[in-house]
Design a protein that fits this description.
The chain is α/β, with parallel strands linked by helices. The protein has a single domain, classed as 3-Layer(aba) Sandwich (Rossmann fold). A five-stranded parallel β-sheet has the order 2-1-3-4-5, with helices on both faces. It is globular. The mean pLDDT is 94.
C-alpha cells in the first residue's frame, strides 16, 4: 500500500476555495503547503457558497474515519459564516439563523469522523464585511438590497469566538479582528474608540482600507490572505521545530542523504559509506 501523508484540511466556503488562487501573487494554501512540505499534505476543501448546514450534509463524504488507506487528519481549519450571515431575501437562501449556526459549528468540530483522528482543530472567524461595496455589487446583480450587512456579519464572527471558547481543545483564529485592526491602522483619521459605525458600514459611509483587503467587500485580497497566513503559520509544524535536524524532522520519506538505497548505490560505485 502506498504511503499516505498526514493532512492539514482547510474546510470552509469560498474564502478557503479562493486560498489556492495564485493570480494575485500570493496563495495562502501554497504558502502553508511550502511550510509543511514532505511532512503534511494541505488539502483544500473550500466550497463556494456553502453555509454550515451544507457543510454538515457533505461532511461524511469529505472526512472518513481512520482506517486502512485513510490519511491521518492532523490539523483541521474550519472557516464558515460568511454565507450563514446572509440576510433573508427572496433572491438569496443561504441564511442560517445565529443559534443554528453555532449548533452547526459544534456538530462539525465534534463529528465522530473528525474527532476519531484527534486532530488539532481551529475555528476561524469570518472576515469583516464592507457592506458599502457589497451593496453596490448586490444591487447591480439583481438583489433588492444587500445580501449581507456589516452588523449582522459581526455577530456571526462573535458566535465563532463563543463556540471556540466553549469547546475544549479548539483554538480560535480571529481573522475578523486581524483584518479590521489592519484596516483601522491604515485608515487615517478613523478612530473606532469614538464608538461610531465600523468601517464598511453604510451608516458611517467610510470604506477606508477595507477596500484594499476586501476588493468586492467580502473576499480577501492577496494582502488579506498574507495576514491570514501570518495568523495560522505559528500553529502548524511545532512538533518538529527545535528538534534535532529540525529541517528534516517529520519527513514522511527520508532525506536523500539518509535513504536506505545509499548503501547499495555506494557499493555499486565501489565506495564505502
Amino acid at each position: 500500500m502506498a504511503l499516505s501523508y498526514p493532512q492539514v484540511v482547510l474546510f470552509g466556503d469560498s474564502l478557503f476555495q479562493g486560498s489556492a488562487d495564485v493570480a494575485s501573487g500570493f496563495s495562502f494554501q501554497a504558502a502553508l503547503q511550502a511550510q509543511v512540505l514532505r511532512r503534511l499534505d494541505v488539502v483544500n476543501r473550500g466550497f463556494s457558497g456553502y453555509n454550515t448546514s451544507n457543510a454538515l450534509s457533505i461532511l461524511p463524504k469529505v472526512f472518513a474515519p481512520p482506517g486502512p488507506g485513510v490519511p491521518a487528519l492532523r490539523y483541521l481549519f474550519v472557516l464558515f459564516g460568511a454565507n450563514d450571515a446572509c440576510v433573508p431575501l427572496p433572491t438569496n437562501f443561504q441564511h442560517v439563523p445565529l443559534d443554528k449556526f453555532k449548533a452547526n459549528l459544534r456538530r462539525i468540530i465534534t463529528h465522530p469522523n473528525i474527532t476519531a483522528h484527534k486532530p488539532k482543530i481551529f475555528l476561524i472567524t469570518p472576515p469583516p464585511l464592507d457592506e458599502i461595496r457589497v451593496t453596490e455589487l448586490d444591487l447591480a446583480t439583481g438583489h433588492p438590497a444587500a445580501a449581507r450587512q456589516t452588523r449582522v456579519s459581526a455577530k456571526y464572527s462573535e458566535a465563532v469566538r463563543q463556540v471556540a471558547a466553549e469547546t475544549p481543545g479548539v483554538t480560535l483564529i480571529d481573522l475578523h479582528k486581524a483584518l479590521m485592526d489592519r484596516a483601522v491602522e491604515m485608515t487615517p483619521g478613523f478612530d473606532p474608540k469614538k464608538g461610531g459605525p465600523a468601517l464598511g458600514d453604510p451608516a458611517g459611509g467610510l470604506r477606508g482600507y477595507l477596500k484594499e483587503l476586501l476588493p468586492d467587500g467580502l473576499h480577501l485580497s492577496a494582502e488579506a490572505y498574507r495576514i491570514f497566513y501570518d495568523l495560522v503559520r505559528p500553529h502548524v509544524g511545532g512538533e518538529w521545530e527545535g528538534t534535532r535536524d529540525a529541517d528534516k524532522a517529520g519527513y514522511v520519506l527520508p532525506d536523500w542523504r539518509e535513504a536506505p538505497w545509499l548503501e547499495e548505490d555506494a557499493h555499486l560505485q565501489g565506495k564505502s559509506l
